[in-house]
Amino acid sequence: MNASPIDVQAAFEILRNNDRGGYTVPTHGLYPFQWSWDSAITALGWRHADEARAWEEAEVMFRGQWDNGMLPHILFHKDAETYFPGPDVWGATDGIPSSAISQPAVWATCLRMLYDEAKDRDLAERKMTELLPGLIRYHDWWYRERDRDGTGLVVSFHPWESGMDNSPAWDDALARVPTIDWEYQRRDLGHVDADERPHKTEYDRYLYLVDFYKQNGFDSDAIYRDCPYRVLDIGLIAILHRGTRDLVALCDAFDRKADSDRLRDDMARTEAAIGKLWSDDRRCFLNYDVIADEPIEEVTTATVLPLYAGLANDDQAQEMVDLIREWEGATSFAISSTHPSSSRYEPQRYWRGPVWLHINWLIALGLKDYGYEELADRLRVAARKCVETSGFFEYFDAESGAGCGGDDFSWTAAVAINWLA
Ligand code: DGY
After folding, report:
1. pLDDT single digits (tens) 41-78
2. Which letter does DSSP use for residue 332 in this model?
3. pTM score
4. Which one from 165, 171, 172, 369 is the annotated catalytic residue?
């Protein structure tokens, strides 16, 4: 495959083609709705062409916020036959039909970047004033509903909530979830090769969980108590923590002292608890299976995200930097989603090995914060090689750099505009 420079105009063209009027689909066909964390990262691409359009991405997303503050991971704005499971399967039809789980809380961080670096200050002040209450309610929801005992570590109820759906880190916890007893037809395999997507055994359990929330009337108490999948997801915890830090800065800028005090307390609880997830052996933080009550030993890109959150002490940061240096040396195309030494590593299959550009960007931000600029820049060069080799795919084979999953992908285009170009 020949490398060619990044074509920024082509990246903007992808955003325009994926625009459905106020929100951007991740890609045509495979993902025909608004996904939460895709949308937040995509807004950072939009801002370089049209700041008003970037703010709109957030406004439309927050229109789908639940009364309890939850921001769903999918908003089904319009019908589409090309995706499964759709709104009828989820059954959450109050307001804009949606899924019943959330996704990594990148919104506060992305909106803070959008706000701080905005050229149109009046617009930024106005939009941030409108969005801030919803953002606060969203973070309050995480701490209130997903950490009811105040441990400092929020719990996740679905692999899809991690955004890293098919990560080998979830295998054992997911294997304990019952399977459904009804037939269904997947749509993803009509768009993408089966060896780049999850297996049926996983889908049978993903769907059991979707059904479980519906059967329980989306009741937070019942789900917290009985959900057969409960994991402390280090990626989700780290991204939430960094988001809360950015949200506190926004609250301070907008004179919301009571909110920033409360959110600081939430952060302090996480900082006090995070040591529980550190592994000397693995030289990173680990996910934790709450039901089995044991750490999950897989090293994935999530396990170094505490760097991005500022949750590591200096020694832990140094250990993770050494790990990342070796990891980067062992792959040809930036940091693979699963460490190549894992027996479950597959370089082309969804979250089991391929490279995701936005995750490499988050890790690079963390490295910079801890003063490892040179390594952060190496990740940027390595990530750029993916796009130069294959274009704007959803993810990239960690060994060949071949494009995998959906093509003309919004967050890849956005990261290319915002970070790589
Ligand atoms: C999918 O369907 O693969 C999505 O990632 C779920 O959010």
Report:
1. 999 999 999 999 999 999 999 999 999 999 999 999 99
2. S
3. 0.98
4. 165
